[in-house]
Amino acid sequence: MKRVAVVTTASGCGGTTCGRALAERLGVPYVELDALFWKPGWVESTSEELRAAVEPIVATDAWVIDGGYWGRLGDVVVKRSELVVWLDLDIATWLPRLLRRTLRRIVRREVLWNGNRETFRGAFLGRDALIPYMLRNYRRRRRVYPERLSSHDHVRLRSQVEIDAFVRSVASET
């Protein structure tokens, strides 16, 4: 296995941590779609720009890609993957993680992709803020992902114990 897509039901499920660990175990490059999508100043890439950045990556023989961006990319990533790893943790797990991580990033002024930093407003205030967005989309994603992934080899991991066991089970191919 050399091409793995990691998708999550919500931010805070551990996609980045899992993706990096899988890439390390497989000895393949790790790609975080958020880093390709978000331009400086929290400007979103267009679908065309994101696709232009992602298509050369998925055309290669080995990678772990973290993120779905189905609304922008369709199934460009999952159709080229050998396995899709779906992290589907319950809200009682991911929401406290997301809140802790977001507050830590705000307080420490951590730099994210392309010089961006999370702000209280961007995380909590308004319809498109991170936390309201995740809460609004969580149940919908749980409903649509089974059908969306049904034609792809995938594994659905529903707890941190399952995620950890899966990552440990992946043998290095280098």
Short précis:
Helices cover 52% and strands 15% of the residues. The chain is of the alpha/beta class and 174 residues long.
For this entry, give a set of tags.
7 strands, 52% helix, 9 helices, 174 residues, five-stranded parallel sheet, Rossmann fold, single chain, alpha/beta
Secondary structure: elements and pairs:
Blueprint (H helix, E strand, L loop, with lengths): L2 E6 L6 H12 L3 E3 H5 E2 L3 E2 L2 H12 L4 E4 L3 H4 L2 H5 L2 E5 L3 H18 L11 H5 L5 H20 L4 E4 L2 H10 L5
Report on this structure:
The protein is α/β, with parallel strands linked by helices. The chain has a single domain, classed as Rossmann fold (3-Layer(aba) Sandwich), CATH 3.40.50. 52% of the residues lie in helices and 15% in strands. It contains 9 helices and 7 strands, in the order βαβαββαβααβαααβα. The mean pLDDT is 95.
